[in-house]
């Protein structure tokens, strides 16, 4: 196993492509947030900086998707159920990207059709490669969110070696604070008098239901919550 494969396995539980986000037991170790059309690091960096400054979480890996977007790759030290991962991503989008048009943001896992993801580095079309990026270089790729040449695999391994996984305790603490403090500033869309949304709900399913059923929440966030909830509802 190469150094790069070792780092991908350490962080995301896989050393080869493609990455299957949700395993046979409904568990997740990787979460991805993509923002594009156009790619704008100044917007996605709010998430990257916010999870560190506001919740003390390790910085997710930064990547370009080889076509039209930036990505944040979150690693979980211990697998969690896909519904919890989906709820976390919806809450992050609500807190930091509520003002961004919904068609520009894609989070995984969301539904059963998005189990697979392409971990960088990979060539997505002629001379356009996905790649992990150093934070100080990320702003340079707004206009061309790809590399023209295959990224150096040792360099990619070096970048990933500095990324740490979110522990189960830290994920639970961050989710609790997100649901209470954001309520969700779903961001400035909810009046202060209605900041009790989800404070009673410690589990991700109840949080998603609260978002989906709250008419004061922006419609696109309610739709995202519904999409995140649907695959994990019990079947009759």
CATH class of the domain at 3-166: Alpha Beta
Discrete helix count: 7
Instruction: Give the structural class.
Output: alpha+beta
Low-confidence stretches: 182-202
Total DSSP E strands: 9
CATH A-level architecture of the domain at 3-166: 2-Layer Sandwich
What form results from the Cα inertia axes? globular
Biggest sheet details? 5 strands, antiparallel
Percent range of helical residues = 25-40%
Q: What name does the CATH topology of the domain at 3-166 carry? A: Alpha-Beta Plaits
> How far apart are the first and last residues' alpha carbons, in Å?
44 Å
Gyration radius, rounded: 17 Å
Relative strand content: 15-25%
Mean pLDDT over all positions: 83
- SSE succession: HEEHEEHEEEEEHHHH
Widest sheet, order of strands: 5-2-4-3-9
Short overview:
The chain has 236 residues and is α+β, with helices and mostly antiparallel strands.
Question: Can you walk me through this structure?
Answer:
This protein is 36% helix and 18% strand. It has 236 residues and is of the alpha+beta class. It has a domain of 164 residues: Alpha-Beta Plaits. Strands 5-2-4-3-9 form a 5-stranded antiparallel beta sheet, sandwiched between helices. Helix 1 runs parallel beside helix 4. The termini are far apart.
């Amino acid at each position: 196993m190469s150094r790069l494969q070792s780092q991908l396995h350490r962080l995301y539980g896989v050393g080869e492509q493609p990455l299957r986000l949700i395993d046979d037991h409904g568990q997740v170790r990787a979460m991805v947030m993509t923002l594009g059309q156009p790619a704008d690091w100044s917007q996605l960096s709010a998430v990257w900086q916010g999870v560190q400054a506001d919740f003390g979480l390790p910085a997710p890996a930064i990547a370009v998707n080889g076509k039209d977007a930036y990505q944040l790759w979150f690693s979980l030290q211990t697998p969690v159920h896909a519904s919890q991962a989906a709820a976390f991503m919806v809450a992050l989008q609500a807190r930091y990207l509520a003002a961004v048009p919904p068609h520009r943001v894609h989070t995984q896992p969301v539904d059963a059709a998005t189990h697979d993801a392409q971990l960088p580095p990979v060539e997505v079309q002629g001379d356009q490669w996905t790649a992990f990026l150093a934070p100080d270089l990320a702003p340079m790729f707004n206009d061309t969110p790809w590399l023209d040449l295959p990224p150096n695999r040792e360099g990619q391994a070096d970048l990933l070696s500095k990324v740490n996984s979110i522990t189960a305790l830290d994920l639970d603490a961050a989710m609790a604070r997100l649901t209470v403090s954001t309520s969700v500033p779903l961001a400035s869309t909810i009046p202060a008098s209605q900041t009790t949304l989800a404070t009673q709900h410690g589990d991700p399913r109840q949080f998603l239901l609260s978002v989906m059923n709250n008419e004061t929440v922006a419609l696109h966030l309610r739709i995202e919550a519904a999409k995140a909830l649907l695959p994990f509802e019990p079947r009759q």
